[in-house]
Design a protein that fits this description.
Layout: H1 2-35, H2 38-51, H3 53-64, H4 71-83, H5 86-95, H6 98-107, H7 118-122, H8 125-135, H9 137-146, H10 150-161, H11 164-173, H12 183-195, H13 198-205, H14 208-217
Helix pairs in contact: 1-13, 1-14, 2-12, 4-10, 5-9
Length: 219
């Protein structure tokens, strides 16, 4: 009876050991298969990116930066300021008016000198119109802004804001969920998806040294 018990015990121990050995082989095989997979390679590359200071800084900046602190907002704010400058807007309208263009064309002729001749002016309706315009508040306003940078600045802002690049930037920075519109966000989503994959969870849970030992023992 004792001999039978010992024989059975030895057989059971052997069976258990063989089962463990088989499990270890499968474990090593699975580890090596995942190790050489494209998914793990992608995960490790994304992991390196996620942990980088540059990525973290960019994410923080895109999530937390106030729209009012951007250059894009500064352009829009300055444009609104100049848009509400009544004198500047009157200058810009006058600059395109037929009256001003006719006067400037007249000023370039020899007849302009006749405006100093009161008698000549009194005898000509055309000269009277030109003289009246030259003395007008409109023309004084024109001269006031003619040599300033404001008209140029305003036109430059209008041109800039009309570009596809600026419109895209404005829409982006004015969006409180801007982070989710970026390629980096899509990379982050993919990284989280891969981190949940069973094979990758298994691979990361293993000790490389233990795997190497089992691999050596089961050769």
């Amino acid at each position: 009876m004792n001999c039978l018990k010992k024989l059975f015990s030895k057989w059971f121990s052997c069976e258990k050991k063989e089962s463990c050995t088989l499990d270890d082989k499968e474990r090593v095989a699975r580890y090596r298969e995942v190790e050489n997979s494209a998914e793990l390679k992608e995960y490790l590359e994304l992991d390196k990116l996620m942990m980088s200071e540059e990525f973290r800084r960019k994410k923080y900046n895109l999530q937390k930066k106030d729209f009012k602190m951007t250059d894009t907002y500064a352009v829009a704010s300055r444009y609104k300021e100049l848009l509400h400058n009544e004198e500047l807007q009157r200058f810009l309208e006058l600059e395109e008016s037929t009256r001003l263009k006719k006067f400037l064309a007249f000023k370039a002729t020899k007849d302009y000198a006749k405006l100093k001749n009161e008698k000549a002016v009194s005898q000509s309706e055309d000269l009277q119109r030109m003289a009246n315009f030259e003395r007008s508040d409109e023309y004084k306003l024109y001269l006031k802004y003619l040599d300033t940078e404001l008209p140029k600045e305003y036109k430059a802002l209008v041109a800039k804001m009309d570009t596809p690049e600026y419109k895209k930037d404005y829409a982006f920075w004015n969006n409180p969920n801007r982070w989710k519109t970026t390629d980096e966000y899509q990379q982050e989503v993919r990284y989280k998806q891969l981190a949940k994959r069973a094979d990758i969870v298994f691979y990361l849970s293993q000790d490389p040294k233990e795997i190497a030992r089992l691999e050596k023992e089961n050769k």
